[in-house]
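wait is this the right file?? whatever heres the structure
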């Protein structure tokens, strides 16, 4: 199971300069995202392109922790 991301879609979205709001509870992470959106975009892009399995693991862990509460 993987995530199908096309480079054309990534380039198109990046070129359109669409703002994305990220809701975070951690103030330090929020400040980092707010101050350096290019860094955040790069990290997210690398997760989708190169580390799809890790992203799926994160989603699974989140779902498991959500179900335990």
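ok assuming it is, sequence goes like this
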């Amino acid at each position: 199971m993987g995530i199908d991301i096309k480079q054309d879609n990534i380039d198109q979205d990046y070129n359109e300069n669409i703002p994305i709001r990220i809701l975070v509870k951690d103030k330090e992470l929020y400040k980092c995202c707010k101050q350096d959106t290019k860094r955040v975009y790069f990290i997210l892009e690398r997760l989708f392109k190169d580390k799809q399995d890790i992203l799926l693991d994160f989603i699974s862990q989140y779902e498991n922790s959500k179900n335990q509460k």
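The longest helix spans residues 52-68. so i think its the right one actually
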